[in-house]
Amino acid sequence: MPDTPPPGTPAVRRRAVLAAATAAAVPVLTAAAVTPASAAPPSATAASGAPAATAASGAPAAAAAHGKRPRALPGGGDLGPNVLVFDPSTPDIQARLDAVFRQQESAQFGTGRYALLFRPGTYHGLNAQLGFYTSIAGLGLSPDDTTVHGDVTVDAGWFGGNATQNFWRSAENLALVPASGTNRWAVAQAAPFRRMHVHGGLDLAPSGYGWASGGYIADSRIEGQVGPYSQQQWYTRDSAIGSWLNGVWNMVFSGVEGAPAQSFPAPPYTTLDTTPVSREKPFLYVDGRGGFRVFLPAKRTGARGVTWGKGTPRGSSLPLSRFYVARPGVSAATLNQALAQGLHLLLTPGVYHLDRPVRVNRAGTVVLGLGYATLIPDNGVTALKVADVDGVRLAGFLVDAGPVNSRTLLEIGPPGARRDHSADPTTVQDVFVRIGGAGAGRATTSMVVNNRHTIVDHTWVWRADHGEGVGWETNRADYGVVVNGDDVLATGLFVEHFNKYDVQWNGQRGRTIFFQNEKAYDAPDQAAIQNGPVKGYAAYKVGAGVTTHEGWGLGSYCFYNVDPTIVQHHGFAAPDVPGVKFHDLLVVSLGGQGQYEHVINDLGAPTSGTSTVPSTVVSYP
CA-CA distances (angstroms) from residue 547 to 321, 449, 506, 542, 571? Predict the structure, then answer.
């Protein structure tokens, strides 16, 4: 099998250029293009039997202003019109899937948000094509409880066969029997494939093998071959695969049965036998009476393979009545009241505007989003703050910076947090951050991790390089992820385009398994990125006082298309001490638009002119 893409397959991506060239050809569909779920027959709508939660967006604030104690908020309730729930007897399932796809296929910066949920059973002849902000999931405790004889497809017809902008969509907790024997999942960032069982192969490239830039698989079993073809990088965690076809730049595996052997850089495989610590994402399922519950998987150490292969997975569950089921339009005050009452949060699909932070102060709190529920801080506040407590689980939502600069967008723990959370860490999973693209947005720092032992399991933190409100100062965002807490683990860290450091890691004993980065395209000149005597800010910077840190499979790319003469001294910067170690690093100049002088510190060869060929360092120091 080839270890490079098929002949003629380009590996370079130029999102900004291609986006501008394609935008005029892609129609934007309106909400009228899809039948609303509220008009669906009973078997295709969500119902729980619990009391309905009211929006009451201004009620708590108004009650407080009059000195009255706000009325207690109910738990449970309907999941809203943008959650479509199917069972095998639901009529016209394919037509409903197609209607959502027509609306969302090219709606990259639209406001539509959808979750497509399938009750346990067997479904035949379906092809669920997924567009932007669309999640599909089964509602069993195991993926094998919900079997689709058909496909869950992501392709790139909307973008001329280029899959590098296939963001913000997900598949979870389903068994697939692909119609052709191979399912196509041609995605880029923020598109997780979790708890999936594919009875066949998985193709990660678009039709025609055009450009692709993903991606993430976890807790999944693919019986056949996984074919990345043109995928530039990929991370697979705690899964099982039949075989793996090829690699372009950076393919990373941890805890994967059937993974290829360690061989970086040729082929570019970084393989860890186990994942040090993992705890799978919470997920919605139905119990034996048909009511909704949220399953909370247990923590694993030295993890390998799937969690669900031998019956019921380990963990606990909560009934929907323990959650405040939030709907778009609800206020931050109401969300905070629900949390103060001891409820968890289930964010149904849509956009939530916040005038104050959502505060998670109670140990064990779950904040779970469906269908890429999106939080926007309107007046420069932080969208969400977590206290220094055990066991918080944040999962499945997008934080979109508002037009007024926020000092931070997401804070995991307060400054100076010091408590030991090793027994029950906070997990941040499929939580994504965006600055610009959908409109003007600004933030000094996007995500700050202060709590010890936090697990950041798949995030894409992105300062937009295309869309609306984009420019070196227009969507200014200096820092992507700043880690101050000790003992933090990142599994699947995607951070791109920040004005200064994309990742700055100050905590001790940090670990990262897989990192993908592009430096900001739009730097106007060399002076704009000058970092004192150093040419440019590293993509991943380990603080000078750190004595222990380790990373595996990290890549940084540059594409300085405004000023191609810009030189970046290195992609990675770290103290030269025995306890700071890196394995399998690379830097790439995309088509010679800017160059790297070194890989890490002063080590590693410069990138090679206009050739898009990685410069690598296998081991540091």
Answer: 46, 18, 10, 10, 20
Q: How far apart are CA 137 and CA 84, in angstroms?
A: 11
The total of other beta-carbon atoms located within 10 Å of residue 65's CB is 9
Selected catalytic residue, list 105, 280, 411, 518:
518
- The pair of structure tokens assigned to 243 is 């075989």
d(C-alpha 207, C-alpha 183), whole Å: 12
φ, ψ of residue 82 to 5 degrees: the values are -100, 10
Q: Please give the mean pLDDT across all residues of the chain.
A: 91
Report the candidate in 374, 433, 378, 375 with the shortest Cα–Cα distance to residue 405: 378
DSSP string covering 533-572? TEES--SEEE-TT---EEEEEEEEEE---S-TT-EES-SE
The whole-number average pLDDT for the span 531-550 is: 98
Question: Strands 216-218, 193-194: parallel, antiparallel or unpaired by DSSP?
Answer: parallel
CB half-sphere exposure, 28, CA atoms < 13 A? 9
CA distances (Å), origin 606, targets 183, 251, 600: 39, 22, 11
Active site residue 468: no
Q: Which two tokens stand for residue 464?
A: 């937009």
- Residue holding tokens 């056949």? 224
Query: Residue 568: what residue type?
Result: Q
| CA–CA separation, 613 and 600 (whole Å) | 17
Residue 102 has pLDDT above 90, yes or no: yes
**For residue 458, what are its two tokens?**
């798949």
Structure tokens belonging to residue 146: 């919900």
**Nearest one of 226, 247, 302, 218 to 555, comparing CA atoms:** 247
Q: Is the pTM of this model over 0.85?
A: yes
Mean pLDDT of 547-565: 98
Interval 107-160: pLDDT, tens: 999 999 999 999 999 999 999 999 999 999 999 999 999 999 999 999 999 999
Three-class SS state of 388: coil
Q: Could you tell me if 401 and 440 are in contact, meaning their C-beta atoms sit under 8 angstroms apart? A: no
Neighbours of 125 (CB within 10 A): 10
CA distance linking residue 257 with residue 304, whole number of Å: 7
229's tokens: 């073809």
Closest C-alpha to 394, from 379, 414, 411, 382: 411
Strand-pairing partners, residue 427, are: 393, 455
- The DSSP string of 341-367 is TT-EEEE-SSEEEESS-EEE-STT-EE
